[in-house]
Design goal:
Layout (H helix, E strand, L loop, with lengths): L3 H7 L3 H28 L29 H17 L5 H22 L7 H24 L13 H21 L6 H9 L2 H22 L3 H7 L3 H21 L9 H23 L17 E2 L9 H9 L2 H16 L3 H24 L20 H11 L13 H6 L3 H22 L12 E8 L12 H11 L3 E5 L13 H9 L2 E3 L11 E5 L3 E9 L6 E11 L2 E8 L6 H13 L7 E6 L7 H7 L3 E2 H6 L7 E5 L5 E7 L8 E7 L1
Parallel strand pairs: 2-3, 8-9
Antiparallel strand pairs: 1-6, 2-13, 3-5, 4-5, 6-7, 7-8, 9-11, 10-11, 12-13
Length: 671
């Protein structure tokens, strides 16, 4: 008869346990932030849903533990991380928000409580934690790449992947309880009593900053691609290779890190922080005016700067230097494990250095995108998107001076790492899966027959890929588009490749699934709500330009779409929004100025104006309203497609239930 107790105990692996738990934490943190953004901010004014950020302060619960935290308590909290993560994708609405919050809050009790344990294997445990975090990021890369930036492990029936990982992690938690290693040295306990709260807080800030950098940047490389207009597949593979190289070194030759001195850590961290910040900052620069948009309407429109190879130097350096964050995670963990802080101390440090700190940095990332919605605070952060990356980089670098010389010795850890062949095999499979997935899911447009006599054009405000109730709805919107089968699509509110959009990319997702060419428009670092153009036909001369803004940055996407050797169209996707009639007039005049002298103009968008308004009348003084051309009278809508004179409209349809908060509008034009 099988002795399951001994079987689990003997096969218990902290490496597997923390790889899964770190992955689940990153996933649920992403979902929590996305749900809060969709419910509390996307409606243009804050709601009580923003209070869900209080889940991030859950570490204060450790104040109630005056003595050590038992393995049973750790097991219960760990199971809550897993169970809530497995149930959350099955839910909708506020229930999903609550479950994501409970999973995150459980982790923020489990992880700091783990550091209070008295097991005397700090070095081995620190290395295990670092490798586990790296593997969690690699898994996130795999799961998002094979499903066009949507995490496949929480998607439809593929959720079975998450359930398998959750069941395995649950067995590992049982193994942790059964093994229950507690060999405590007297001097370690004394160190825990005397270690200052400030020291513990600095170490916590460092650990939290690693999680934040991973979350903001590396868990989904489409984020980096949209910052930089860099090659998506190249970025995915570059990030993946550097992480895998780090894991291989730590598994096979961790003693190589013995050559690293404290000053080298300072330099490496400093260069990484600089390259990370510059990767964002250089792509925020606009011609003539630097990184800050002017407030004078006479200076617009401003054409976005074209991306050159020089712009990509910080990106390449950032990817090459990125293994330092996992090395930092190892060293920070070792230092905190050696202190063995009391529950109250570590609970307080994580409440401040993880919870409150994360809330602040989240707002630093969100405010530049919604700088006019929550004045006067949000307005201070207009064009300051780079700050959300500089601060975590600094807080990873600063604690380096706390590292002791013994912390940088990895010889013992090299002997203690087990299952090396299994780890390397897993890495090989993940690399192969990600590599193949990146190429298979990429769009492969097949140009339609040039014998066509008409084209279908669609304009669609997709509300960041969510529906009217705030639920993620990429597939609903995809099916609506498929039902129309448009040749050209003008998208608005398509800026999702940031934490408010779950770090997924709705433009990439739709382009991949529809096998269409695409141009996203202004880079996400410029903090527009995002316009994009998708086409069955090749896109050329694509660019973005900015107009005067009163409360959110406004950009328009422009591209030339070639139907055949003798016929091409100048397509614009726009989403003007301003407070006050005067500002609205400025915007539409600035946008229309870019259509001057062009033939075959297709100008689609959510214009935020209705027929007979001043802005509408200015527009139809230059271009024709497609709805009026087909039906004779203007539609009482704010979503329009305007055309150059001479283009014949064969049909014009509003789909009222647009799987968004806007109807989808499509027209058919004669060629």
């Amino acid at each position: 008869m099988i002795d399951f107790k001994n079987l689990i105990k003997n096969n218990y692996s902290e490496f597997i346990l923390f790889s899964v738990i770190f992955l689940f934490f990153i996933q649920m943190l992403s979902d929590l932030a996305e749900r809060i953004f969709d419910y509390a901010i996307l409606g243009l004014k804050p709601t009580l849903h923003i209070l869900a950020l209080l889940f991030l302060l859950s570490s204060v619960g450790l104040f109630f533990f005056r003595k050590e935290i038992s393995d049973k308590t750790l097991f219960i909290v760990g199971e809550l991380i897993i169970i809530t993560r497995l149930i959350e994708p099955l839910l909708k609405g506020e229930a999903l928000l609550i479950l994501a919050g409970l999973s995150v809050s459980s982790f923020l009790i489990f992880f700091p409580a783990y550091f209070t344990r008295g097991k005397n294997k700090e070095q081995q445990t620190g290395v295990t934690l670092g490798i586990s975090l790296a593997l969690a990021v690699v898994l996130s890369l795999l799961f998002r790449t094979i499903n066009s930036t949507l995490d496949v492990s929480i998607y439809r029936w593929f959720q079975i992947i998450g359930w398998i990982l959750g069941i395995v992690a649950s067995f590992m938690l049982v193994g942790m309880l059964l093994k229950s290693e507690k060999v405590v040295q007297k001097e370690s306990l004394e160190e825990g009593k005397t270690a200052s709260f400030g020291r513990i807080l600095l170490l916590t800030l460092g650990l939290s900053s690693v999680f934040i950098i991973v979350w903001f940047t590396f868990m989904s490389p489409t984020v980096i691609s949209r910052w930089t207009e860099g090659n998506y597949i190249g970025i995915v593979l570059g990030v993946l290779v550097m992480i895998i190289l780090f894991i291989i070194v730590m598994v096979l030759k961790p003693n190589l890190l013995n050559e690293i001195k404290s000053w080298m850590l300072w330099v490496w961290n400093g260069l990484f922080t600089l390259s990370l910040t510059l990767t964002v900052l250089v792509h925020q620069i606009i011609p003539t005016y630097g990184i800050f948009f002017p407030d004078n309407h006479t200076l617009y429109p401003i054409i976005a700067a074209s991306t050159t190879s020089a712009h990509q130097i910080p990106l390449i350096l950032m990817i090459l230097l990125s293994p330092i964050i996992y090395i930092d995670f190892i060293l920070l963990s070792i230092e905190l494990l050696r202190i063995k802080p009391k529950p109250a101390k570590v609970g307080g440090s994580f409440a401040l250095g993880a919870g409150l700190y994360a809330i602040i940095v989240i707002f630093l990332q969100v405010f530049p995108n919604v700088w006019g919605y929550m004045p006067p605070i949000s307005t201070l952060f207009r064009d300051m998107y780079w700050l959300a990356f500089l601060i975590p980089g600094l807080f990873v670098t600063i604690p380096v001076f706390l590292f002791k010389k013994s912390t940088l010795s990895f010889e013992k850890a090299a002997k203690d790492i087990k299952s090396k062949s299994i780890i390397l095999t897993i890495l090989g499979l993940i690399f192969l899966g990600t590599f193949v997935g990146a190429f298979v899911t990429a769009p492969h447009p097949v140009e339609p027959d040039e014998g066509k006599t008409s084209l279908i054009i669609m304009s669609y405000n997709i509300r960041l890929g969510v529906n009217l109730t705030g639920e993620k709805n990429y597939d609903g919107q995809l099916e609506l588009i498929r039902s129309v089968d448009p040749d050209i699509i003008c998208l608005q509110e398509s800026d999702t490749a940031r934490i408010g959009g779950g770090n997924s990319d709705v433009v990439r997702y739709l382009a991949d699934k529809l096998n269409m060419y695409s141009y996203r428009g202004a880079k996400t670092v410029t903090n527009t709500y995002g316009t994009a153009i998708l086409s069955k036909y090749p896109i050329s001369n694509a660019k973005a330009f900015f107009v005067y803004s009163t409360h959110q940055q406004i950009s328009t996407t422009q591209a030339q779409i070639t139907f055949n050797s003798t016929l091409s169209f100048n397509v614009f996707s726009s989403h003007p929004a301003a407070r006050g009639d005067e500002a609205k007039r400025y915007q539409i005049e600035e946008i229309l100025s870019q259509t001057s002298g062009l033939d075959n103009v297709i100008f689609g968008g959510d214009f935020n104006f209705r027929p007979n308004s001043e802005s509408y009348n200015i527009t139809v003084g230059v271009l024709e309203d497609s709805w009026v051309q087909k039906w004779g009278t203007a539609a009482d809508r704010i979503d329009h497609i305007f055309l150059s004179s001479g283009i014949t409209v064969l049909d014009a349809v509003y789909i009222e239930r647009g799987q968004s908060d806007h109807p989808a509008y499509w027209i058919e034009i004669q060629l």
